[in-house]
Amino acid sequence: MCSSDLTMLAAVPHAVGTNNHMGSRFTEHGLGMHRVLTVLKERALFFVDSYTTAGSQGLATARRLAVPATRRHVFLDNEKTPSKICDQLDQLALLARQQGHAVGIGHPNQAMFTALARCGPENMHHINLVSVQRLTR
Description:
Blueprint: H1 3-10, E1 17-19, H2 24-27, H3 30-42, E2 46-49, H4 58-65, E3 69-71, E4 74-75, H5 82-99, E5 104-105, H6 110-123, H7 132-135
Parallel strand pairs: 1-2, 2-3, 4-5
Helix pairs in contact: 3-4, 5-6
């Protein structure tokens, strides 16, 4: 990481973890991920790999470095309509029941809020919402 990246981390003093929102090509770069995750380890931060590419080295590198980490399983709002987001919430709930846990990533937008109000309670009936930090290992 360069000094400006460290400055960015310092700008969020209460951060407990990070994720890569974008940067598919970078996450495929093992040495780069090693450098980033080494800094996260030094700062006791967890990492969520958004897994924007199947070639991501993020989770594997984090595990090798013993950085608490997990990965995203479902993008909730690739299509920003409440009905599509509800479909993705269904998928997330199914994976959580099958695997014992699942991580979904979405954005704070009106379609997401509408979907959560409309179908969220139905999807959450058989699962527990927890902090992503609890899912990092």
